[in-house]
């Protein structure tokens, strides 16, 4: 995406948070109407860049209401080194899998979605499926210039020694492996994944291909065609799509 195209990303919509929250509170989706019910499946929620667990608080309560068992990522602001965060998330993932005796689904927003993608590649033994919401999977810096400026500011502060922040060196040093795994093919044992951006869902059976600016759902070719979406992909994706219509 060119600089001009990135400038056209409607970042001004971020200012509608109060209006959209009010609309969400009235939406029947929030009451669980018209979405698949869970059966106690564990779900790890990973917040986006600059955000923390609080940003996914409504989703956590909603998933619990419709029958899932959400687990917070214990992140106050998602600005630390990717590998350090992934190490902590891996421990949480293992803990959730052990507590519930089953694989864990992951829902990640923005940067959290790229981390969910890496965890799915690294831990197919305990990851059931992932949902990525507004995540720059094809290019992690394919974002609005204002957001890219924030990324550079955080990296500069981290490089100057401020603790708890990623640095400019992360992209060429400790986090190189993780950056490659964002685009790596899914392990054959991974059941399903879904990525969603504003613009409506598009479906594919090619899990290693991700496009920027559209919704994309990836299904490993070994998955039996059942005509149903994997939980919790179905309720989260359904709610996301309905909220943007």
Plain-language structure description:
It is a single chain. The protein has 245 residues and is α/β, with parallel strands linked by helices. It has one domain: Rossmann fold, CATH 3.40.50. It is built from eight helices and seven strands; from the N terminus they run ααβαβαβαβααβββα. Strands 2-1-3-4-5-7-6 form a seven-stranded mixed β-sheet, with helices on both faces.
Describe the SSE topology:
Blueprint: H1 3-7, H2 17-26, E1 42-46, H3 57-65, E2 69-72, H4 82-100, E3 104-109, H5 111-122, E4 127-133, H6 145-159, H7 176-181, E5 192-196, E6 203-204, E7 216-218, H8 233-243
Parallel strand pairs: 1-2, 1-3, 3-4, 4-5, 6-7
Antiparallel strand pairs: 5-7
Secondary-structure class:
alpha/beta
Overall CATH class: Alpha Beta
Query: Helix count, per DSSP?
Result: 8
Q: How many domain regions?
A: 1
* Average pLDDT rating: 79
Order of helices and strands: HHEHEHEHEHHEEEH
Q: Helicity range of the residues?
A: 25-40%
> How far apart are the first and last residues' alpha carbons, in Å?
24 Å
- Cα shape: globular
| Spatial order of strands in the largest sheet | 2-1-3-4-5-7-6
Q: Let me know the largest β-sheet.
A: 7 strands, mixed
- Under the CATH scheme, the architecture is 3-Layer(aba) Sandwich
Radius of gyration: 17 Å
Question: Roughly what fraction of the amino acids lie in strands?
Answer: 5-15%
Instruction: Give start-end ranges of low-pLDDT stretches.
Output: 199-232
The CATH topology name reads Rossmann fold
**SS elements, strand count:** 7
